[in-house]
Write a structure and sequence with these properties.
156 residues; alpha/beta; Glutaredoxin; seven-stranded mixed β-sheet; 7 strands
């Protein structure tokens, strides 16, 4: 069976596009800041909506496991830093939420959908390369799937 390349996502081994966006505290954050560390970048449609809240809370609940593995978690949507701050506070989200109102990073990572941002995630290694892509995300089970993959990727 020949596998067709999915052109709607970045691929394993590709360099992750650089970004510089404001977080929930209006502080600029770039991918370059995390050089040498693994990063999970997850894209989601909108703060405080059912699926996005389920996904964020599942990542929150697994956050200590990500931290123990040395993985930084970053969520990105087109929502404002103020919206992200309210969302993070309401659900006690301990990770970075970035605002991409122009959808440049969302587009660079192939997460731009029709009206809404696609729910897609990438694991990026310390050299800035994609090591795993998640084009179809189940909000409730996503965190567990990523942790399982990280155990294999990091060989722990």
């Amino acid at each position: 069976m020949i596998r067709k390349k999915n052109h709607n996502m970045l691929h394993i081994g590709e360099q992750a596009p650089e970004f510089r966006l404001l977080d929930q505290n209006s502080e600029p954050i770039s991918l370059e800041q995390f050089h040498g560390k693994h990063v999970l970048v997850y894209f989601y449609p909108k703060d405080d909506t059912p699926g996005c809240t389920k996904e964020a809370c599942a990542l929150r609940d697994a956050y200590n496991d990500f931290k123990a593995l040395g993985v930084t978690v970053i969520g990105i949507s087109k929502d404002t830093p103020e919206s992200h701050q309210q969302f993070a506070k309401k659900y006690e989200l301990p990770f970075i939420l970035l605002s991409d109102p122009q959808k440049k990073t969302i587009s660079d990572y192939h997460a731009k959908g029709g009206l809404f941002t696609r729910r897609i995630s990438y694991l990026i290694d310390g050299d800035g390369k994609i090591v795993k892509a998640y084009p179809k995300v189940d909000p409730a089970a996503h965190a567990g799937a990523i942790l399982q993959d990280l155990m294999h990727i990091l060989k722990r």
